[in-house]
Write a structure and sequence with these properties.
about 160 residues, alpha+beta, Dna Ligase, domain 1, 2 domains, 5-stranded mixed beta sheet, 9 strands, globular
Amino acid sequence: MDPIATTVTEFAVPIRNLLAQDQELLVLCRYANRGGNAYDWWLIRTDAELHTILATAPFQASISVFLEPELPLRGIANPTLLERALQLLEAEGEILVACLPEDGNQLENVSGADEVADLIKWFHDYEGTRAAIGRYPPFWLRNGSSVVITGYVPDAHGIVRMGSF
């Protein structure tokens, strides 16, 4: 399947339909040509939040929106939540942990954890903060899956030009 632009209905309609049903969606924005470690994560609940991300994302950015609920473990980063996160890590093999912001919807201090030591360190570093935790979402799945849809910010002429991630 060819890459799709973030400006086409094929990208926007499934997302907007879920948002209209009051679903919270996880969004990953990967920035092209920046050495592979340039990305941001958001939790969105409204079309306006989606629009802000799309309007500010640079040319060639990859925007992946996960169409199922993600990061279901929520709470204060403390020993109780760590225990639940360790159970999830054992079940999933790799998880995503993030601090929930006080204001806004962009996740902070986001980290993938596939080892117990990494998860314990994250909890130590961010103890007392509001956290969101879940499986590491499969952004690498191709469009057409029921799990994720990915679009690319087109150039000024509406053409998708792939960068390297």
